[in-house]
Amino acid sequence: MLTTALLLTTLATATAAAPSAPASATTAPVEEPKKKERGADAIVLPLLSYNSDMGFTYGGVAGAYLYAPGHTPYQHGIALQAMFTSRGQQSHYLRYDGPQLIGPMRLELRLEYRRELRSPFYGPGNVSAQDFRGDENEERFNYKRGSPGAWLRLRGRPFGETHPFQSYVGYSWRYTEVDSFEASVLEELKPVGIEGGPTGQLSAGVLWDTRDNETDPSRGGVEELGLRVSGSATGSRYQYAGVTLSERRYWKLNSRFLVAQRLTLDVLFGEVPFFEWVNTGGVSTSEGIGGMSSVRGIERNRFAGNIKAFTNTELRFRAFDFNLFKAPVTVGGVAFVDLGRVWHPDVTDGPWWRWHPGMGGGLRLTRRAAVVRFDYAISPETGRQRMYLNFGHMF
């Protein structure tokens, strides 16, 4: 476990690095700079975190902002990340963000490369891999994966910056290289997608966002409907489509306590490659079922299928505040319960009430828009325990 001193150092350096981006398992949401009319800002920071799924994460992130009159909060933003983990994973990207670049529309562009020496695969369905005993490094439940890719998205508020309605449209492309181990579940089942290849996706969606703060909300919520489609016309080897429904709500009980709730349903249709079974759509994507972005306490991507549903309930507590480098820091805690399950065609998924729970508690350190979270979780089904140290609220 990292020390308190290291946590505070990480929090102090995490407050300004890259343009605002969708939260993910490897990308820290960071604070946008104060509004300026002209000039530029640039910063280079170390990257350090830990979770039970990926081990220790290390690397660096660099960001730069260019300012011009009439552009808020900046005219151009550029971010660069190089990230490695102690379990042989890599995640590198170059990202551009142009608020109000095309009239009121925001342009986001990202080039990335991911590599995993052990990417989990337990088979499809809600009761898959009954012989799994908790060794995540076992070759039977892993495969090697490499996936260079890119995406771009146009996002905006057509009715004004203060109106809650938002819309977006985007395109993503990824080439997935699959290398299965000889005695693995993947090699036994040989599902659609074992050949790897390109997946190009067109995506579109709408949001109704009434949150009082995007990075650390205490009131309001956001509802989202997202669509995505892949086929030969989009540069994809596989023909499939997906729908994502998401609801996030926040209720402030008093000055110290609030309840946060998220519900997500993701449905895939058609010739879906196995490596897409764990992914959800929308602005802020998640993996699961299992892991730090869906159901904590369960191994990453433990349950996979064409239909995924999960819910997360958090009771967040604000304990006290202090100043760090002339900025206020809030120390708080959280208690949570996560539930999730999947459905997949032509496999046994168990009774309707067979949901997989995870529960636990954690600490939160918040400095302006930067949030450091440490979670300890346990799976009541297996008794196995997991820890997560990362940036940003889960939702």
Task: Give a brief outline of the structure.
This protein is mostly beta strands.
Q: Which tags fit this structure?
A:
single chain; 395 residues; Porin; 16-stranded antiparallel barrel; 16 strands; globular
Description:
The protein is mainly beta and 395 residues long. It has one domain: Beta Barrel (Porin), CATH 2.40.160.50. It is built from 2 helices and 16 strands. The chain has helices at residues 4-13, 185-189; strands spanning 39-51, 55-67, 76-85, 89-102, 105-120, 142-156, 165-180, 197-209, 220-230, 240-252, 257-270, 307-324, 327-343, 356-367, 370-378, 385-391. The chain has a 16-stranded antiparallel β-barrel. The chain is globular and about 60 Å long. It starts with a helix and ends with a strand. Residues 1-31 have low confidence and may be disordered.
Topology (elements, then pairings):
Layout lengths: L3 H10 L25 E13 L3 E13 L8 E10 L3 E14 L2 E16 L21 E15 L8 E16 L4 H5 L7 E13 L10 E11 L9 E13 L4 E14 L36 E18 L2 E17 L12 E12 L2 E9 L6 E7 L4
Antiparallel strand pairs: 1-2, 1-16, 2-3, 3-4, 4-5, 5-6, 6-7, 7-8, 8-9, 9-10, 10-11, 11-12, 12-13, 13-14, 14-15, 15-16
